[in-house]
Amino acid sequence: MSAAGQPGGGPxxxxxxxxxxxxxxxxxxxxxxxxxxxxxxxxxSNRLGAEGAGVxxxxxxxxxxxxxxxxxxxxxxxxxxxxxxxxxxxxxxxxSLLSTALVPVAVAATSVAxxxxxxxxxxxxxxxxxxxxxIRSAAPFIIIGSLMTVLFGxxxxxxxxxxxxxxxxxxxxxxRLAGLCAAIGIGAGIGALSAxxxxxxxxxxxxxxxxxxxxxxxxxxxxxxxxxxxxxxxxSRRTFWSFSGARxxxxxxEILLEWVDVLAxxxxxxxxxxxxxxxxxRCIRLGSMLDHTARIVSxxxxxxxxxxxxxxxxxxxxNSVTRLLILGAWPLYLVYLLFGAPVLRIFGEGFDVxxxxxxxxxxxxxxxxxxxxxxxxxxxxxxxxWQLLNKIAALAVALILNLFLVPALGLYGAVIAWSSxxxxxxxxxxxxxxxFLGIGLRLNVVALPAALAFSVFGLGGWFLRxxxxxxFHGLLLLxxxxxxxxxxxxxxxRRPLGLAALAAKPHLPQxxxxxxxxxx
Length: 520
Fold this sequence. Notes:
By secondary structure, the protein is mainly α. The protein has helices at residues 16-71, 74-87, 94-118, 120-127, 132-138, 140-157, 161-185, 190-222, 237-269, 271-285, 288-307, 311-338, 340-345, 355-370, 374-380, 384-409, 411-435, 443-468, 472-492, 499-502.
């Protein structure tokens, strides 16, 4: 909103400093959450073995999928409408919005939890593993997890971005890791392990509720009286759920894409194979933390540029983010590509059987990262429906290929299915962004970052692999020596790489005569 549109006619607060601080703190919290999640995977895989880890990953995957489906975009709806209410001085509508979001989610989640509790024996038979106790331990927490997700959205909509990130990326994974350590330490079974993983959701949910209550009270007491505005009432339930439902459908497809291959491996190949493949899945997801942080930092500036039709600024920002993604993610995936076996051995005996599949996924991710933040461009330009259709197409590819290839090719079948779905999703988004929005990747912008990462971790890693073999010693040398050399080169080439510009205060385009690129 422009300054003139602020309540009371006062000037808008400049977002630059806030954005920079939020981005920096969010990055640190995302890194912390990723490290804790990695530690949890290490703990589970080493102490439970492939089969036990497979059962654990199945339950956690099902919990994540069902929680996302029950929430159905209500958290995103609160982000939008609570933010709009604050901007227009309508803090008093927060309670009504919360009721609109929470009641249907609570009803849906309760129905799913009861159904899952009753059907636990049948589900355990379908999985072919003794998971009935784990399912019943986790089922009630689907309700709590869904409510927690909605409260997280309310915190974001109320401007509490850093506190939300602290709860999601620090408190929750830390409590889960501590609970699993205690449960595994006493030799608990799968039911207790499932409870140890789920109970922190209740703790964090209560913390989010208390923090939100305090935040909303502060907003109400500090809000200045506003003149009534025509048509400024709270959104109807239909308006709220019409908006939230579209994003909810997309989120449901995304979470299915994230876990469908793990579940397919569990069904066709058993829990031990699912445990091995689940570790591969968790390692690959570490690379997504950079993309997540880039969205937080660049999203407002990208949205502002697209809103006023400033395609040139949006294209420059898109290329800058792509350059950053290549610099940050290519080294990780090149390490996976060349030293996949020793990386997987860290998780325990038998996990390195998936090293070939790990290599294929790492190569795929090099291509996905090279496309840049095309998903963020689609969202910030208002093309959420395009993104939904893309992900539905990718999910269809994943389901069909998993169904036919996993029984025939084992883990390689799951890898082919996952890689094909990722390339379809990214390829469609890249085509739409370039052809319909006029924002494309400039090779001269990403050539130096790609050459730098490939020289140090690709050629250097290949030499170390040739000299030492695919060993932990070679992996350690690459991480220490290659990482040190890479850091020195980044510092020396800071200006040619454009890192100095990335550290500058973000530019927010001013409204111009250009027409917006698309409707929100």
